[in-house]
Amino acid sequence: MLRFFHAHESPDAWHANPGWQFFGPALLPSMHSIVQSYAMAEPEFPKAMFARLMPSAGITRHTDSAASNLLVHKIHVPVATTPDVQFEVAGEYFHLEVGHAYEVNNVVPHSALNPSNTPRVHFIFEVYDAALVREA
Which Pfam families does this chain map to (predicted)? Predict the structure, then answer.
């Protein structure tokens, strides 16, 4: 976890781990580019992490229940994957390809399965418009 927030209620109280000082300058330009079409006045990135799903492993179907999930867009950017890896959202199955970014609705049931012999790695980050949250 490079950036995170403790309360799970308000994304504006985030903290950065030391790894963010190293990765942040390289990642932020791509993060801004990915969310440019959202036309946010003040994009803020409260959470950022690399997530590895080991070979022959899965993530059980679940919903993310933190109240902050209603305020943020969750973006998955595949870094390493194979065609066998599946991401399931609300009963639909997808293969998330390297070279693309995907917004995931994590307040509906979702899961992941990696039946391959290779770890799957995603860069996952959240974004929200800080200007709108301040106005609320």
Answer: Asp_Arg_Hydrox
Q: Which two tokens stand for residue 16?
A: 């950065």
Dist CA 11 CA 5 (whole Å): 6
**CATH code of the domain in which 72 resides:** 2.60.120.10
Structure confidence at residue 42 as a pLDDT band (50, 70, 90)? very high
Q: Which residue has the tokens 């190293």?
A: 22
Residues 6+ apart with CB under 8 A from 136: none
Q: How many structural domains is the chain composed of?
A: 1
Answer whether 35's CB lies under 8 Å from 45's CB: no
Structural domain harbouring 130: 3-135
Q: How far apart are CA 71 and CA 93, in angstroms?
A: 25
Cβ atoms of 105 and 72 closer than 8 Å: no
User: Could you tell me the two tokens for 99?
Assistant: 């070279």
Q: What b/e readout covers 9-23, taking b as 16+ CB neighbours within 10 angstroms?
A: eebeebeeeeebeeb
